TrEMBL record:
It is an enzyme of class 3 (hydrolase). The keyword Repeat does not apply. GO terms for molecular function: guanine deaminase activity; zinc ion binding. The gene is guaD. Its cofactor is Zn(2+). Belongs to the metallo-dependent hydrolases superfamily. ATZ/TRZ family. This is Guanine deaminase. It catalyses: guanine + H2O + H(+) = xanthine + NH4(+).
Amino acid sequence: SIKAIRASIMDIARVVDKPEDIEQNVRFIEDGLMLVENGRIEWVGEWEEGKDKIPSTVRIRSYPGKIVMPGFVDTHIHYPQAEMVGAYGEQLLEWLNNYTFPTEARYKDKDYSREMSRFFIKQLLRNGTTSALVFGTVHPESVDALFEEAEKINMRMIAGKVMMDRNAPEYLLDTPDIGYNQTKELIERWHKRGRLLYAITPRFAPTSSPEQLAMAGRLKEEYPDTYVHTHLCENKDEIAWVKELFPEQDGYLDVYHHHGLTGPKSVFAHCIHLEDEEWDCLHETDSAVAFCPTSNLYLGSGLFKLQEAWKRKVKVGMGTDIGAGTTFNMLQTLNEAYKVMQLQQHRLSAFEAFYLATLGGAKSLSLDHLIGNFEVGKEADFVIIDPCSTPLQQLRYDSSKDLPEKLFMLMTLGDDRSIYRTYVDGRLVYERG
Ligand code: GUN
Ligand code: FE
């Protein structure tokens, strides 16, 4: 089935390795046409140039004043933590013990997991996020439920069961063998089924024994095209603890690297307090970082050094990190990223911000050949953005503003009301009420 969408169109043409190169690769078509067929981008260009290509039987979906953008890519989020966003008063380690672990216990129940998976996917879509790299809980049921729901709309989702065998309550622990077997089964069942992909997911170094990390490494060796998803250098107490637990390793990242868990499909959330050698290792292994500004501010973890990542040529995507992060919304996440950079005397541009939320995120997930912009043949995941959805935006909006200003207002003032429509796999999956 062919769909014809008429609106302004914006995307970024190619992956870059310095932020100065983004602007010249921004494509903006004021009166654009996008043709979609069988879940793929068929054609993108000027309305005038393309309108004769539309078969006469196809209804034109016209969105005047709206902007079509690639769907947002969330490179780090915990679906079981949606119900605990806004837990009061703690930094990482106490937050995990007091709030997170008791919450995650509920996902032993498949029906509960299913109910919360539905809620979770709805929230992604109403916020314009069409791809995500997602933590489940230690229970394989949690991941089965999430994948089953994502499969219903053929969403591009990467997820995994948490592996953790120590330093957490008994009711949330697996063992090296159980974690291995359950992960293996899930990989066999889900990895590359439709658009679904599996991530081997040791929670973080403190909650896995060396034996379990070795098992995770073995899985990665047996299934080299799966992902690895974990946390790294988020909080100073956490880092000190890792150094105590793994005295024989050369720092936090080396714990993962030693076990074969770095690489082009490895995503490390946070990376706030990296040492020089750790930046080098991320670069050399082509590993990616998930920048999670709302979480890093909320838990008081610190300020991510985005400029250092560019300088070191380390891939970065945006993560909401629900539930330490406080919003599913990528615009609000970019707004917080801007402030994190302000505190470091750097002005994050709107182009750079939208790059990170789309094509940069896709690159971080090694999916930039499939998603992240509107290259012909790519998967048709996109959002129709309303740049003027609130009274304040209407007051501030002026059609003479140039594109960077319009986009900057969108990321500063936008929220879920800015998401007018969301399409996944070429199909309409969310309409603003
Ligand atoms: N480190 C280990 N587990 C977690 C988690 O659930 N959230 C965050 N933000 N950091 C973690
Ligand atoms: Fe996290």
